[in-house]
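=== RUN LOG ===
request id: a7f3
mode: sequence -> structure
chains: 1
length: 524
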Amino acid sequence: MRANLPVAGEDARAAAEPKKEWLDRAISLEPNSARFYGRRAALCRTLGDWSAALADLDEAAEIAPEMMSVPMSRAETFWRMGIIDLAQRNVQAVLSRRQNLSRPYELRALLQLHPHILTPEKAPPELVAHAMKDLDEAVTRESHAGSARLTRASVRRTFLNDEEGAVADMNALRKEHSEVPGEGLNHEYLSEILPMLPGEAEAERVRDGCLRYAELLCRKIKAGADRQATLDIVVPILERAFELGATRLSEGHASIKDEPAVRAVIDKYHSYPVLLYKILYDGEKPADAASIVQEIRKRLLLRINRRGYPQASITTREHEYLLIRIPSADRDTVERYKALFRELAQRGSRLVFKVVADQQTHERWRSTKQIPEGYEAIRHELEESLFYREPWLKDEFLVRSVPVATDMDITYATANPPQPQPDGPPPWKVDLTLSAEAGRAFDQAAAELFAQDPKGHIAIILDGKVLSAPAVQSDIFGGSMIITGNPTETAARDLAQDLRSGIRYPIGRPGEPGEPVEEIWPHK
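=== RESULT ===
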């Protein structure tokens, strides 16, 4: 079900190694087998050897130019490397000759939506409609419910707020597959397959693969390949390499360094100012630093897109530093970025879920006027009618100081319209999904509150204001919940975006959260 994810795990790489060795021997014995080259390319892709994968596909194309699996495999490879332009070209090459395959339509839809996956609410409706048409074609042409249906479910939920359609697709999948991603993973599916956000090690492999494959193409130009046609491939490949942190070209690229299109790529990235920030961990770097830095990077991009700033390129170093290359040498633009990062460092969590103390704890507090250790008192303006059976919760109540979950734990948030009501337009709602770890912590707290008599409450607090404090009516939530009361669609969408882009640790320089460790300006 996850065959189109861009990054292979270590287990998949370990399994691919002996298979590749077998294919190496097979190709040495049968060097004119396009099929063997194609299979080895797929294994090289699993191993993260991107230049070798593309070189094998070039060999396969020379041996058997009629094989449609070659441009399709090229499209998949460029897509996973994040070179969208070249992936689109190869998908179109497949569709111009074969219209009966499912995957090209699915991939074309993903490529169309790619610029808008971080901010789906900004995607032009006509573009989403065109992508959905491709996904409908892909689902129709699948021999059984699979990847295309999962992608369509995710697009329906992410871009169209079509929960009913998404559930229908997921139910169809579950009929044919015993292991289908759960609701939380399903929500995250599209952002997980974004090749623009590879992990640090994977980013290095893609960057190095781009540079090595560009060298190979330079050698082909020297050997007589069509210069312009080859440069049309080299330029987007080098663009991706610089986007992922490349700083210069090697001697192997000497034959193209003076080409205007190549020079434009080099000058563009060398003219960008860079802000260097450190992730300010609590003490030692945690064991899961690799995933933390990628989550912070993703959420920073969400914030940048939310503000409408020029799209920055963010690369990571040692799972501890973020290098933010800003595509503008204008100092006012750089200062806007710096102000955004200061704001993130100062604000902290916007949304917190906190356990409300039980009746006995409240009564002791009221009588002694002493707040118990581990708790804090919060005033609220919720209606008294909400607590007609629990008068000790009126006006002010105690909550545990440590939250069960915060917006840093949110993996998915989207605005959805509520059910129509006869007495006027109802407020909008925001559907949330927590990370697996936070979901388990929330369920543990829910089970404790559900077992109380009367049922315990959990406070939902946004920017210091208590949104609600519902009595817990279930001992299991599975990491999913709803925030109601947003008066307008705009307010709900803004809240959903802000909640998706909170960061767990501040960034900055030690002792000065929000301030860059270093500010690097290009030499003119």
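=== NOTES ===
Residues 200-222 form the longest helix (23 residues).
Residues 203 and 244 are 6 Å apart (CA to CA).
=== END ===
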